[in-house]
């Protein structure tokens, strides 16, 4: 076999070894959250966002923070995609990463967007990052254990092929459901005004602590080496959809607070 072909094939089976080297939610997941958020924006916020993004949708820009990871100039933003916490800890109790994390990254984005002295370029950049990070927050393994890099080192199989638990929740279940991001967004659960208001309640830290309760369940949902198949999606895809919808509603709440 040609050496170059053999080397390429071998790369396909190398599992990610760092939180900085993986995508969170996956592209479709982030786009679902962005699309749902658009439905909950006020008219005033939508108009300002449309101007700042030059007509690009929230769904379109939702993957930007992952796309720039290949550029070393943006390497310092990598820790903003996740929080490492012990399963029994709250965010307030946990040891903080001196390089920042999801909570501090979101706070920075909001600060820039609210600052009248920020340049248009800075606001554009931090808006795209904020859209992504609010989505990231709602992927339970974003708020995972440091020792296994948010489930990246928890090796499992997905329909007989090697992967890890983080990837299953990040993209495998979503991609295998085989629905476009627009279809997934349009088929989100119908919620009453009171249900939406309940989801919007709380701070970013409150949301982190809430999602972290699901994280514990996710770690318990599979054993190392287990072959996850249809039954796993049957048991857990409703949680994925719920988290994507909550992410969209809360993203809209944050954006309305900034721009309305």
TrEMBL record:
<keyword id="KW-1015">Disulfide bond</keyword>
<protein>
    <submittedName>
        <fullName>S1/P1 nuclease</fullName>
    </submittedName>
</protein>
<keyword id="KW-0479">Metal-binding</keyword>
<keyword id="KW-0255">Endonuclease</keyword>
<dbReference type="GO" id="GO:0016788">
    <property type="term" value="F:hydrolase activity, acting on ester bonds"/>
</dbReference>
<dbReference type="GO" id="GO:0046872">
    <property type="term" value="F:metal ion binding"/>
</dbReference>
<dbReference type="GO" id="GO:0004519">
    <property type="term" value="F:endonuclease activity"/>
</dbReference>
<dbReference type="InterPro" id="IPR003154">
    <property type="entry name" value="S1/P1nuclease"/>
</dbReference>
<keyword id="KW-0325">Glycoprotein</keyword>
<keyword id="KW-0540">Nuclease</keyword>
<dbReference type="Pfam" id="PF02265">
    <property type="entry name" value="S1-P1_nuclease"/>
</dbReference>
<dbReference type="GO" id="GO:0003676">
    <property type="term" value="F:nucleic acid binding"/>
</dbReference>
<dbReference type="InterPro" id="IPR008947">
    <property type="entry name" value="PLipase_C/P1_nuclease_dom_sf"/>
</dbReference>
<dbReference type="GO" id="GO:0006308">
    <property type="term" value="P:DNA catabolic process"/>
</dbReference>
<keyword id="KW-0378">Hydrolase</keyword>
């Amino acid at each position: 076999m040609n050496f170059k072909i053999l080397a390429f094939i071998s790369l396909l089976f190398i599992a990610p070894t760092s939180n900085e080297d993986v995508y969170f939610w996956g592209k479709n997941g982030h786009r679902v959250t962005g699309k749902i958020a658009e439905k909950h924006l006020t008219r005033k916020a939508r108009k300002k966002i449309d101007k700042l993004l030059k007509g690009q949708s929230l769904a379109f820009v939702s993957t930007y923070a992952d796309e720039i990871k290949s550029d070393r100039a943006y390497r310092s933003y990598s820790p903003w995609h996740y929080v490492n916490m012990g399963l029994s800890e709250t965010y307030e109790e946990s040891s903080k990463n001196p390089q920042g994390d999801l909570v501090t990254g979101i706070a920075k984005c909001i600060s820039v967007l609210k600052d009248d002295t920020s340049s248009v370029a800075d606001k554009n950049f931090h808006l795209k990052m904020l859209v992504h990070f609010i989505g990231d927050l709602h992927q339970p393994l974003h708020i995972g254990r440091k020792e296994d890099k948010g489930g990246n080192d928890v090796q499992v199989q997905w329909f007989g092929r090697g992967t890890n638990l983080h990837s299953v929740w990040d993209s495998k279940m979503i991609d295998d459901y085989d629905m476009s991001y627009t279809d997934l967004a349009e088929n989100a659960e119908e919620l009453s005004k009171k249900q939406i208001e309940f989801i919007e309640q709380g701070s970013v830290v409150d949301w982190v602590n809430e999602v972290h309760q699901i994280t514990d369940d996710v770690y318990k949902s599979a054993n190392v080496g287990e072959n996850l198949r249809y039954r796993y999606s049957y048991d857990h895809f409703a949680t994925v959809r719920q988290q994507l919808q909550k992410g969209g509603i809360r993203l809209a709440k944050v954006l309305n607070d900034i721009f309305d």
